[in-house]
Amino acid sequence: MSPRDGDLIKTILLNAAERSARQLRVLEWGSGQSTLSYPQILAAHDLPFQWLALEYDREFFDTFVAPGLLYRPDTVLRYADDGRVLHGPVGAGRAHIEAVCWNRTALRPSERSADREADLDHYVNYPAATGHGFDVVIVDGRKRRRCLLAAADFMEADTVVLLHDARHPYYHCALDRYPASRFIGDDMWVGARSTARLDDVLTERAAMTASLGYRWHLRRLMAEREMFASTELAQLLAERGVMASREQVHRLFTGVPERLNPNLLVALCDILDCQVGDLIEPARQAHSRSPG
Protein backbone atom coordinates (compact mmCIF):
# COMPACT_ATOMS: atom_id res chain seq x y z
CA MET A 1 0.00 0.00 0.00
CA SER A 2 1.35 3.41 -0.94
CA PRO A 3 1.83 6.12 1.70
CA ARG A 4 -0.85 8.17 -0.06
CA ASP A 5 -3.39 5.35 0.20
CA GLY A 6 -2.41 4.74 3.81
CA ASP A 7 -3.12 8.40 4.57
CA LEU A 8 -6.51 8.13 2.89
CA ILE A 9 -7.55 5.24 5.11
CA LYS A 10 -6.45 7.19 8.20
CA THR A 11 -8.42 10.21 7.05
CA ILE A 12 -11.58 8.17 6.53
CA LEU A 13 -11.25 6.35 9.85
CA LEU A 14 -10.64 9.54 11.84
CA ASN A 15 -13.44 11.43 10.11
CA ALA A 16 -15.88 8.55 10.59
CA ALA A 17 -14.95 8.20 14.26
CA GLU A 18 -15.25 11.89 15.04
CA ARG A 19 -18.63 12.14 13.28
CA SER A 20 -20.10 8.96 14.73
CA ALA A 21 -22.65 9.15 17.53
CA ARG A 22 -21.53 5.72 18.75
CA GLN A 23 -18.32 3.79 19.25
CA LEU A 24 -16.77 3.43 15.79
CA ARG A 25 -17.17 -0.08 14.36
CA VAL A 26 -14.61 -1.22 11.80
CA LEU A 27 -14.54 -4.47 9.85
CA GLU A 28 -11.38 -5.61 8.10
CA TRP A 29 -11.25 -8.58 5.72
CA GLY A 30 -7.57 -9.53 5.63
CA SER A 31 -5.39 -8.79 8.66
CA GLY A 32 -1.83 -7.48 8.66
CA GLN A 33 0.08 -4.29 9.38
CA SER A 34 -3.17 -2.31 9.11
CA THR A 35 -4.59 -4.33 12.03
CA LEU A 36 -1.67 -3.24 14.16
CA SER A 37 -1.29 0.39 13.10
CA TYR A 38 -4.75 1.86 12.46
CA PRO A 39 -6.31 0.88 15.82
CA GLN A 40 -3.28 2.41 17.50
CA ILE A 41 -3.86 5.66 15.61
CA LEU A 42 -7.51 5.74 16.70
CA ALA A 43 -6.47 5.04 20.30
CA ALA A 44 -3.84 7.81 20.14
CA HIS A 45 -6.66 10.22 19.26
CA ASP A 46 -8.68 8.88 22.21
CA LEU A 47 -11.47 7.77 19.86
CA PRO A 48 -13.55 4.79 21.06
CA PHE A 49 -13.82 1.93 18.58
CA GLN A 50 -14.48 -1.77 18.00
CA TRP A 51 -12.23 -3.36 15.38
CA LEU A 52 -13.04 -6.76 13.86
CA ALA A 53 -10.25 -8.31 11.73
CA LEU A 54 -10.74 -11.55 9.80
CA GLU A 55 -7.89 -13.72 8.53
CA TYR A 56 -7.85 -17.15 6.83
CA ASP A 57 -4.06 -17.82 6.78
CA ARG A 58 -3.21 -19.32 10.18
CA GLU A 59 0.58 -19.31 9.73
CA PHE A 60 0.66 -15.66 8.65
CA PHE A 61 -1.68 -14.67 11.49
CA ASP A 62 0.31 -16.46 14.21
CA THR A 63 3.63 -15.15 12.92
CA PHE A 64 2.92 -11.53 12.09
CA VAL A 65 -0.39 -10.44 13.63
CA ALA A 66 -1.15 -12.29 16.86
CA PRO A 67 2.15 -11.41 18.64
CA GLY A 68 1.54 -7.71 18.02
CA LEU A 69 -2.05 -7.84 19.27
CA LEU A 70 -1.82 -9.89 22.43
CA TYR A 71 -0.22 -7.13 24.48
CA ARG A 72 -2.99 -4.66 23.51
CA PRO A 73 -5.69 -4.00 26.12
CA ASP A 74 -9.17 -5.37 25.42
CA THR A 75 -8.04 -7.64 22.59
CA VAL A 76 -9.56 -11.05 21.79
CA LEU A 77 -8.08 -13.57 19.34
CA ARG A 78 -10.49 -16.28 18.18
CA TYR A 79 -9.46 -19.41 16.28
CA ALA A 80 -12.73 -20.29 14.60
CA ASP A 81 -11.95 -23.88 13.64
CA ASP A 82 -10.66 -25.16 16.99
CA GLY A 83 -12.50 -22.90 19.43
CA ARG A 84 -9.33 -21.46 20.95
CA VAL A 85 -9.67 -17.97 22.44
CA LEU A 86 -6.83 -15.76 23.68
CA HIS A 87 -7.23 -12.50 25.59
CA GLY A 88 -5.03 -9.47 25.97
CA PRO A 89 -4.88 -7.48 29.22
CA VAL A 90 -8.00 -5.81 30.56
CA GLY A 91 -8.28 -2.17 29.52
CA ALA A 92 -10.68 0.74 29.78
CA GLY A 93 -13.06 -0.68 27.17
CA ARG A 94 -12.71 2.20 24.71
CA ALA A 95 -10.44 0.40 22.21
CA HIS A 96 -11.63 -3.15 21.59
CA ILE A 97 -9.98 -5.40 18.97
CA GLU A 98 -11.32 -8.80 17.96
CA ALA A 99 -9.35 -10.89 15.46
CA VAL A 100 -10.80 -14.12 14.05
CA CYS A 101 -8.63 -16.64 12.22
CA TRP A 102 -9.37 -19.85 10.31
CA ASN A 103 -6.96 -22.76 9.84
CA ARG A 104 -6.09 -22.24 6.21
CA THR A 105 -2.81 -21.74 4.39
CA ALA A 106 -1.74 -18.94 2.06
CA LEU A 107 -3.77 -18.76 -1.16
CA ARG A 108 -2.11 -17.69 -4.41
CA PRO A 109 -4.78 -17.88 -7.13
CA SER A 110 -2.47 -16.25 -9.68
CA GLU A 111 -0.04 -19.15 -9.24
CA ARG A 112 -2.32 -22.07 -8.35
CA SER A 113 -5.63 -22.38 -10.17
CA ALA A 114 -7.10 -24.59 -7.44
CA ASP A 115 -6.81 -21.70 -4.98
CA ARG A 116 -9.44 -19.78 -6.95
CA GLU A 117 -12.03 -22.33 -5.83
CA ALA A 118 -10.99 -22.39 -2.17
CA ASP A 119 -13.95 -22.51 0.21
CA LEU A 120 -13.79 -19.38 2.36
CA ASP A 121 -17.55 -19.16 3.00
CA HIS A 122 -17.19 -18.75 6.78
CA TYR A 123 -14.60 -16.01 6.29
CA VAL A 124 -16.85 -14.12 3.85
CA ASN A 125 -20.11 -14.61 5.76
CA TYR A 126 -18.84 -14.07 9.31
CA PRO A 127 -19.61 -10.31 9.55
CA ALA A 128 -23.27 -10.70 8.58
CA ALA A 129 -23.65 -13.50 11.13
CA THR A 130 -22.52 -11.21 13.98
CA GLY A 131 -25.65 -9.09 13.57
CA HIS A 132 -23.58 -5.94 14.15
CA GLY A 133 -23.46 -2.88 11.93
CA PHE A 134 -20.17 -1.40 10.73
CA ASP A 135 -19.19 2.20 10.03
CA VAL A 136 -16.08 1.39 7.96
CA VAL A 137 -15.36 -1.81 6.05
CA ILE A 138 -11.87 -2.46 4.68
CA VAL A 139 -11.58 -5.15 1.99
CA ASP A 140 -7.93 -6.19 1.73
CA GLY A 141 -7.79 -10.00 1.79
CA ARG A 142 -8.77 -12.91 -0.42
CA LYS A 143 -12.22 -13.24 -2.07
CA ARG A 144 -12.47 -9.46 -2.37
CA ARG A 145 -15.24 -9.54 -4.92
CA ARG A 146 -17.40 -11.75 -2.69
CA CYS A 147 -16.58 -9.58 0.32
CA LEU A 148 -17.66 -6.46 -1.57
CA LEU A 149 -20.98 -8.08 -2.45
CA ALA A 150 -21.49 -9.24 1.13
CA ALA A 151 -20.72 -5.75 2.49
CA ALA A 152 -23.23 -4.21 0.06
CA ASP A 153 -25.92 -6.45 1.54
CA PHE A 154 -25.37 -5.56 5.21
CA MET A 155 -24.12 -1.97 4.93
CA GLU A 156 -26.07 0.74 6.73
CA ALA A 157 -26.90 4.30 5.71
CA ASP A 158 -23.54 5.69 6.86
CA THR A 159 -21.31 2.68 6.14
CA VAL A 160 -18.20 3.34 4.05
CA VAL A 161 -16.53 0.45 2.18
CA LEU A 162 -12.88 0.61 1.10
CA LEU A 163 -11.20 -1.63 -1.47
CA HIS A 164 -7.44 -1.91 -1.78
CA ASP A 165 -5.82 -2.97 -5.08
CA ALA A 166 -8.86 -1.49 -6.80
CA ARG A 167 -7.17 -1.40 -10.21
CA HIS A 168 -7.92 -5.09 -10.86
CA PRO A 169 -10.86 -5.32 -13.31
CA TYR A 170 -11.86 -8.64 -11.71
CA TYR A 171 -13.36 -6.73 -8.75
CA HIS A 172 -15.18 -4.08 -10.76
CA CYS A 173 -18.39 -6.01 -11.40
CA ALA A 174 -19.11 -5.82 -7.65
CA LEU A 175 -18.75 -2.05 -7.52
CA ASP A 176 -22.07 -1.49 -9.25
CA ARG A 177 -23.83 -2.65 -6.08
CA TYR A 178 -22.94 0.66 -4.42
CA PRO A 179 -25.13 3.73 -5.14
CA ALA A 180 -22.17 6.10 -4.68
CA SER A 181 -18.51 5.33 -5.26
CA ARG A 182 -15.24 6.68 -6.60
CA PHE A 183 -11.64 5.69 -7.20
CA ILE A 184 -9.26 7.57 -4.94
CA GLY A 185 -5.55 7.77 -4.21
CA ASP A 186 -3.15 5.47 -6.05
CA ASP A 187 -5.02 2.17 -5.85
CA MET A 188 -8.11 2.63 -3.69
CA TRP A 189 -11.87 2.66 -4.21
CA VAL A 190 -14.51 3.81 -1.76
CA GLY A 191 -18.26 3.13 -1.82
CA ALA A 192 -21.27 4.26 0.22
CA ARG A 193 -25.01 4.80 -0.05
CA SER A 194 -24.70 8.51 -0.85
CA THR A 195 -22.27 10.98 -2.36
CA ALA A 196 -22.75 13.17 0.70
CA ARG A 197 -21.38 10.43 2.91
CA LEU A 198 -18.31 10.05 0.69
CA ASP A 199 -17.69 13.79 0.76
CA ASP A 200 -18.03 13.76 4.54
CA VAL A 201 -15.44 11.08 5.27
CA LEU A 202 -13.02 12.30 2.59
CA THR A 203 -12.90 15.85 3.95
CA GLU A 204 -9.31 17.01 4.14
CA ARG A 205 -7.72 16.96 7.58
CA ALA A 206 -5.00 19.59 7.67
CA ALA A 207 -3.79 18.96 11.21
CA MET A 208 -0.41 17.33 11.67
CA THR A 209 -0.63 13.91 13.27
CA ALA A 210 1.73 11.13 14.24
CA SER A 211 1.40 7.78 12.51
CA LEU A 212 3.31 4.55 12.74
CA GLY A 213 5.82 3.67 10.07
CA TYR A 214 9.01 1.66 10.17
CA ARG A 215 12.70 1.76 9.37
CA TRP A 216 14.15 -0.97 7.16
CA HIS A 217 17.57 -2.24 8.30
CA LEU A 218 18.31 -4.86 5.63
CA ARG A 219 21.30 -3.05 4.14
CA ARG A 220 22.92 -2.45 7.53
CA LEU A 221 22.44 -6.06 8.64
CA MET A 222 23.92 -7.32 5.38
CA ALA A 223 26.94 -5.03 5.72
CA GLU A 224 27.55 -6.25 9.26
CA ARG A 225 27.78 -9.74 7.79
CA GLU A 226 30.03 -8.56 4.95
CA MET A 227 27.32 -9.01 2.34
CA PHE A 228 27.34 -6.10 -0.10
CA ALA A 229 25.76 -7.37 -3.34
CA SER A 230 22.07 -7.73 -4.11
CA THR A 231 22.95 -10.62 -6.45
CA GLU A 232 24.30 -12.56 -3.49
CA LEU A 233 21.06 -11.94 -1.61
CA ALA A 234 18.99 -13.15 -4.57
CA GLN A 235 20.93 -16.43 -4.66
CA LEU A 236 20.48 -17.00 -0.92
CA LEU A 237 16.76 -16.32 -1.20
CA ALA A 238 16.45 -18.79 -4.08
CA GLU A 239 18.17 -21.46 -1.98
CA ARG A 240 15.33 -21.04 0.50
CA GLY A 241 12.61 -21.31 -2.09
CA VAL A 242 11.92 -17.58 -2.45
CA MET A 243 12.20 -16.56 -6.08
CA ALA A 244 12.61 -12.82 -6.65
CA SER A 245 13.58 -10.88 -9.74
CA ARG A 246 16.71 -8.76 -9.90
CA GLU A 247 14.56 -5.64 -9.70
CA GLN A 248 12.67 -6.88 -6.64
CA VAL A 249 15.86 -7.71 -4.77
CA HIS A 250 17.39 -4.37 -5.76
CA ARG A 251 14.38 -2.53 -4.32
CA LEU A 252 14.69 -4.50 -1.07
CA PHE A 253 18.38 -3.60 -0.93
CA THR A 254 18.09 0.10 -1.72
CA GLY A 255 14.67 1.20 -0.47
CA VAL A 256 11.97 0.64 2.13
CA PRO A 257 9.43 -1.99 1.01
CA GLU A 258 5.76 -1.01 1.31
CA ARG A 259 4.56 -4.62 1.47
CA LEU A 260 6.40 -7.71 2.70
CA ASN A 261 5.66 -11.29 1.77
CA PRO A 262 5.85 -13.39 4.97
CA ASN A 263 7.89 -16.12 3.24
CA LEU A 264 10.39 -13.49 2.12
CA LEU A 265 10.62 -12.04 5.62
CA VAL A 266 11.23 -15.48 7.17
CA ALA A 267 13.91 -16.22 4.56
CA LEU A 268 15.68 -12.92 5.26
CA CYS A 269 15.70 -13.65 8.98
CA ASP A 270 17.23 -17.06 8.27
CA ILE A 271 19.87 -15.65 5.94
CA LEU A 272 20.88 -12.91 8.36
CA ASP A 273 20.38 -14.98 11.52
CA CYS A 274 18.21 -12.26 13.00
CA GLN A 275 14.70 -11.61 14.28
CA VAL A 276 11.91 -9.70 12.53
CA GLY A 277 12.44 -6.83 14.97
CA ASP A 278 16.06 -6.50 13.82
CA LEU A 279 14.91 -5.91 10.23
CA ILE A 280 11.91 -3.70 10.98
CA GLU A 281 12.04 -0.91 13.56
CA PRO A 282 8.69 0.81 14.31
CA ALA A 283 8.93 4.59 14.03
CA ARG A 284 6.46 7.41 14.49
CA GLN A 285 6.17 9.84 11.57
CA ALA A 286 4.53 13.25 11.74
CA HIS A 287 2.69 14.39 8.63
CA SER A 288 -0.51 16.00 7.38
CA ARG A 289 -3.30 13.99 5.84
CA SER A 290 -5.17 14.91 2.73
CA PRO A 291 -7.48 12.79 0.54
CA GLY A 292 -5.74 14.18 -2.52
Please tell me about this protein's structure.
This protein is an alpha/beta fold and 292 residues long. The protein contains 11 helices and 11 strands. The chain has helices at residues 3-19, 33-44, 58-69, 121-130, 144-154, 195-201, 218-224, 230-239, 246-254, 262-272, 276-279; strands at 24-29, 49-57, 75-79, 84-87, 95-104, 136-139, 160-164, 180-184, 188-192, 205-216, 280-289. A 9-stranded mixed β-sheet has the order 4-3-5-2-1-6-7-9-8, sandwiched between helices. Strands 10-11 form a two-stranded antiparallel sheet. Strand 8 (180-184) and strand 9 form a beta hairpin. Helix 4 (121-130) packs parallel to helix 5 and helix 8 (230-239) crosses helix 9 (246-254). The protein is globular. The protein starts with a helix and ends with a strand.
Features of the shown structure:
292 residues, alpha/beta, two-stranded antiparallel sheet, 11 helices, 11 strands, globular, disordered C terminus
- Overall SS class: alpha/beta
Number of strands: 11
Beta-strand residue percentage? 25-35%
Helix content: 25-40%
Order of adjacent strands in the largest pleated sheet? 4-3-5-2-1-6-7-9-8
Low-confidence stretches: 286-292
Query: Count of DSSP helices?
Result: 11
Morphology call: globular
Question: How does the SSE layout of this entry go?
Answer:
Elements: H1 3-19, E1 24-29, H2 33-44, E2 49-57, H3 58-69, E3 75-79, E4 84-87, E5 95-104, H4 121-130, E6 136-139, H5 144-154, E7 160-164, E8 180-184, E9 188-192, H6 195-201, E10 205-216, H7 218-224, H8 230-239, H9 246-254, H10 262-272, H11 276-279, E11 280-289
Parallel strand pairs: 1-2, 1-6, 2-5, 3-5, 6-7
Antiparallel strand pairs: 3-4, 7-9, 8-9, 10-11
